[in-house]
Structures are given as structure tokens and as C-alpha cells.
Amino acid sequence: MFKRFKCLLLVPALLTLAGCPAGPVPLAGWERSVTEVDSRTICCGGTSVIVEKTYDHNYDLVFSPDGNRPNVRLKSHFDYVLQRPGQPPRALPFLTTYTHYNHEGGFGALYEIDPGRTWAGYAPVPDDRGSADSRRYVVKVFNADGIVHQTDIEVLQKQRRIEFVPDVPGFRFHHRQGMALYDIRTGKVTISPPTAG
Asked: Is residue 189 predicted with pLDDT exceeding 80?
């Protein structure tokens, strides 16, 4: 009896190490397909365009709380392509993001900082459930060759808006300690405590 129980626990653990899904609830199966489900231009016009493509990863499960289940979406990923006139599309693999169970991982907004050379945007931190009063986002500043810098920011749920400030350039948002500004050039965050009165 103990050997059978040990085997049931060992199978999901081995599958996790091999790259198959196995979370808090043991799952066992294999990837059936990866399908493109969406493609949208997220920036910016002019001399360059960045396209975001969303893919679903579907699995055949042979062991799950609901038994044998074919073709179940367990994760998604986002790929990015830079398109310039007269040039072949250029993949931006350093921006690829994976998320489980939902499509919250793509850019919420993306801005061209230096025309055709540098971009900055933010996206929800994948699979972050957040807290009762805040949500985490990842800010990425990049060029065609890679990430220049990135950081996680915490934005209060009550004022969840992140505002692009072109004069800085930067992103302004409500933080637990006051108004915050992420400087796109330096990657630093400065916080102004709330004023009394």
C-alpha cells in the first residue's frame, strides 16, 4: 500500500522536473498542441511596429482531480515580433512571457521612447494573484537586442491606473507609500509621500 502511495506522489514530481504540468493538485499528462489564438499590434506606427502573439498550450491529462481529460489549456505564452519597412520580421525572444490558466501576461501598454530604437511598457506579473489592495506589474525597457532594464512595481488597486509621462519619460502610479514615478531612462523609482491636509 505504501509503495503505491509513494508512486502516485513520485509520478507528478518527476513530470514536473521533466517540464510537464504538476501543481499543488497533482496532474499528469503531456502537451498536445500549441495554438496561436490572438495577434495584435501593440505599438507604435511610424518606422516600426511591434506585434504581440498569444499562444495556448493544450494538454492531454491522464491523471487529474477530474480523471482523464483531453485537450485542456494549462498555460499560455506571449511572443513579440518587431516589423520594420523593407526588413524581415524580427523576433524579440527576450520578451516571451508564460502564464498559467489565463491570458494576463501580455503588455497592458507599450510606448516608443526613441523612435525605432527604444520601447517601454508594463504588464501584469504572470500568475500574480496580488493582494486585497494592490497588484504587481513588471516594467520593461528594451531595444531590438534585449532588455535595457526592468523592475516590478506595486500599484494600489483603488487607483490602478499607470500613467505615461512623456516629459520624463516615465510611468506614474499610486504606491502604498505615496505617488511613485518610474524613470524609463534610469530604471529608478522615486516616491513622493502623501502631503498632510
From this structure: yes
